[in-house]
Amino acid sequence: MTTTTTTAVAPLTTHDAEILLTAARRAAEAAGVTVSVTVLDAGGHLLAFRRDDRAVLISGETSTRKAYTALQLNAPTADLVDLVKPDGPFHSLTTALDRPLLFIAGGVPVHRDGTLIGAIGVGGGAPEQDHSFAVTATAALA
Q: How much is the pTM?
């Protein structure tokens, strides 16, 4: 009889979420941008959220939807933008689900040992900036 040993990947913790949130906010602050940051676990549950005092109000909603979209599709939202354009293969995906997805750069999945464990979303800057802040945050966790 052969036994296979599998090692469970540690889930995203609140401590991890704070590392992600802090790294994203520091990157945004260094760029002079006020943002909202959302961190979700693998089940899509909120682990951390922070909106800078001067960030536009809608950034809280956009950061959360970006994180959710990155989580559900296991891909950075920056990589999905062209797929939902009118001639794209997923053009109807934006309205297909009960919970809205948002295909604007700034959402990034979070992996540990190759396993999806959550996602981060950043909103408030230009899409390229938000993406950069989220990528910086995931690098800080690694």
A: 0.91
